[in-house]
Amino acid sequence: MSGEVGSKAPAFTLLDTDGNEFNSSSLTGKKVVIAFFPAAFSGVCAEELCSFRDALADFTSVDAEVIGISIDGRFANSAFRIANNLPFPILSDYKQATIGDYDVVWPNFAGMPGYTTARRSVFVISTDGSIAWKWLSDVPSDLPSIDDVASAVKSAR
Predict the structure, then answer these.
(1) Is the pTM of the predicted complex or chain greater than 0.90?
(2) What dotted CATH number matches 21-155?
(3) What is the C-alpha separation between 70 and 99, in angstroms, rounded?
(4) Residues acting as catalytic residues
(5) Fewer C-beta within 10 Å: the chain N or C terminus?
(6) Of 92, 2, 1, nearest in space to 40 by CA
(7) What residue segments make up the domains of the chain, in order of their start?
């Protein structure tokens, strides 16, 4: 199954906030933190991504890249990135392929039938491209422990 610890991380090509293609192959040989989030401009998503922003030195000190992914369009993601001063890429999975590949699809989000978004989740990818650690929310208001993510990154190969 996709998105399982020990499996190869699914590859993706998504648009960044400037409309450029961001290919996961550019991360080859690096540790990576992928934070999937349901919606730009929701309070919980802002809190989560700002926590990653505030702890960025912990990740860069071990040569780890942080990226955020939502199904929002690049324009909303750009405004969200600017409003929250996020210094890492925020990518648009508007076709919802990557959330499917990582098995983090959240259908009928917030009681809205037919509205599918990303389940709040975090994946740590090892330098060999395998999934070293993952965290999945049970409810949209759950937040990952940044300390747990940092520990997972430090222990990843």
Answers:
(1) yes
(2) 3.40.30.10
(3) 8
(4) 45
(5) N
(6) 92
(7) 21-155
